[in-house]
Amino acid sequence: MQTLPDEFNRPPLKLVGGMPIIGPFADNWENVEHFQARADDLLISTYPKSGTTWVSKIVDLILNKGDMAESQKAAIFERVPFLECSGPGMPSATEILNKQDFPRVIKTHLQVDVLPKSFWDKKCKVIYVARNAKDVAVSYYHFYRMAFGHPDPGTWDEFLNSYMEGNVAFGRWSTHVKGWWKMRQQSDILYLFYEDMLEDPRREIQKLLKFMKWEISDEVMEKILKYTSFQAMKNNPMANYSTFPFMDHSISPFMRKGISGDWKTHFTVAQNERFDEYYRQEMADTDLTFRM
Ligand code: A3P
Ligand code: EST
What we know:
alpha/beta, Rossmann fold, 4-stranded parallel sheet, binds adenosine-3'-5'-diphosphate, binds estradiol
């Protein structure tokens, strides 16, 4: 693993438009804010740890008609650049995207209010994936531990408090999922759920195909299902982030468990009661519901 220069090791979060973000990402904010989207860009938007990499690999394979050799030409984080990402010794995603061929598939974790305006002006298609708040908290905690570009997560209890306060990169889970849920009424957004993808990936891929106005044969569908199973992606260096610098997979692998309900092995009874009460308040003003 490549170690981070001191100033990039566990740097404090910074605010952009009221949303906390990874320090070096904020330093490139000018370029993100003024990013020029094109009408044929496809945006994959998620709160961190909600299935971004999974849906990215599925979309990449759909666009390449299940051709794994093509999809394996580069790691998923290179094939689907992360709009707001910039870090030490790496070109920012905005620099990469500005030079990239079209159509582009772009990943973002930005809250709906701070997405660069040009995505709305150009009426880009957006695939949003949401995951239940408790499993996201657990997955995010382990991600904070292994990716040193985040502030120190502290103990699980401390991290859970920060998460509930929205004092984590990309802010409050509830603001994110509710904001994008509301926006789907006026924009071209396909809103998917991680739990639905686990339950019936074929059905969810069919939703993606319909949304993307794309057709594939049954044979290609079978290939996509095979290559994007959790085990296949966990063992695939082009999907599992093992080639990404600044992550220590021996602390916690990026492809950690890939299940629903792992929160039950982390939340104490007291934490769960506190979280349920908080959740009730946060979600009182929306018809958006989740399966835990
Ligand atoms: P866990 O930490 O709960 O295992 P993101 O890509 O948004 O960062 O999300 C990462 C989470 O999605 C991790 O969750 C990871 O294991 C899970 N994941 C990635 N690929 C998956 C797949 N093919 N099937 C199921 N879960 C997957
Ligand atoms: C954060 C969320 C995510 O979904 C992917 C990545 C990849 C890029 C990572 C970042 C992240 C965590 C923090 C870093 C960053 C690259 C440099 C920074 O230190 C590891």
